[in-house]
Amino acid sequence: xxxxxxxxxxxxxxxxxxxxxxxxxxxxxxxxxxxxxxxxxxxxxxxxxxxxxxxxxxxxxxxxxxxxxxxxxxxxxxxxxxxxxxxxxxxxxxxxxxxxxxxxxxxxxxxxxxxxxxxxxxxxxxxxxxxxxxxxxxxxxxxxxxxxxxxxxxxxxxxxxxxxxxxxxxxxxxxxxxxxxxxxxxxxxxxxxxxxxxxxxxxxxxxxxxxxxxxxxxxxxxxxxxxxxxxxxxxxxxxxxxxxxxxxxxxxxxxxxxxxxxxxxxxxxxxxxxxxxxxxxxxxxxxxxxxxxxxxxxxxxxxxxxxxxxxxxxxxxxxxxxxxxxxxxxxxxxxxxxxxxxxxxxxxxxxxxxxxxxxxxxxxxxxxxxxxxxxxxxxxxxxxxxxxxxxxxxxxxxxxxxxxxxxxxx
Length: 410
Prior knowledge:
six-stranded antiparallel beta barrel; 13 helices
């Protein structure tokens, strides 16, 4: 069995190695000089390998087409992923939110383990860009790359989505899928920074907040809430919390979104009010704008003062209970109206891709073109942060590799 895998990312490496383990002759076409370019930057260079949870929890973190992944997760679960990497010499650890990382905190260790594995199994790596598929009588029979036709019994497309094009994810997989008769759900950015409608964030550019709660409202309906870190930028909001939130915001243009930040989530309103009274007593003869230094980062104070509606130079001892309530509301519901997401090139993952109704969930094989399989982000499945997107890559890559190598010729 002669198999070509297009794309040397997480899904492609897993598919190539798995097929080779089954005895197939495997050629991996990868544009970049080194495999795993996108893996190298995941988890801030630490590589959030997967999530230490059961398959059902993975599915709960996949907002788009989760049912399609039942067989793939049954074939290669989070526990299987962890066992795989530990067996290939990468000790793992589980952190907050059940996120799994290499003990070394180096994504290079994950890439090296996969590279060593596929080389040991005899996978041939060809540093060329796939140009098109060769299809005859409804079956894929090869791939054109670098002016040459590489013949194949099976082809696995694992090209990624359209996010981070500098890593090689340029959307080529969508073009190949269309060539084979597939429909492609238009790709959109997910896990991406947000653009503010106003200019509050520009004033706060560079300010990072830790241990805050972010809540997202879609047309005044709460759709997401979580604790963690975030960052104000010149265009809007970023940071881990915001990237997670963005995956839930899918209807810009038809719906309105706002983000509310609880600057003091550890304190309920009653406790925070007591804290304000205490601080006000300490600074009773000061101007209001000079009385919040013990409570807030210096950079955000002028904006909070403005939002509260209290004059910055009003003496603290003259602030009324009603005014204090307004300040309290601002601290617990710091509001940023969001107009959209940053471009797809800045997204961690892409939502959209090859329509999964046209792909067999049991084999990852195309229903439109015999011998053609798909794996990873090129498919219209994506997940929230926490290692779930890489889990999709490992599971679909494993299943595609097994199926491609084992299936009999039609």
